Amino acid sequence: MxxxxxxxxxxxxxxxxxxxxxxxxxxxPGMVLLGIMGATARLLTGKASVPxxxxxxxPGLLLIPxxxxxxxxxxxxxxxxxxxxxxYIGFAGTFELMMLSFAGAxxxxxxxxxxxxxxxxxxxxxxxxxxxxxGIRLVLMLIQNM
Length: 146
Hints:
mainly alpha, 6 helices
């Protein structure tokens, strides 16, 4: 995938992370619009096919049942964020992003449980971890391209 798409997603994740920290949720209309625009652009330019787009969104699609089964531990906005990321950065990039952000959130969750004495039902915003993960991916891409 192009570094331009990676940077574009990073910019949007900045706004989503700020909204998640400020309000505890992320507005879905803007995310849906961004996803539709990205999918349309990739289809019209021939950069992707419909099956290709669906497969690139697979990491996010796999989170949908977890969102319902997990008593909203994974929120709908988080799932939608991964779906949009899949449209722009593909399956491998989204899967890598997912693993990095889940690792960061897991470490933070352990910190909250052990040090801050929170209980396991305490929630926290997830998009800052998505932002950190995409930042790590961008830095590694830039180092690799030097």
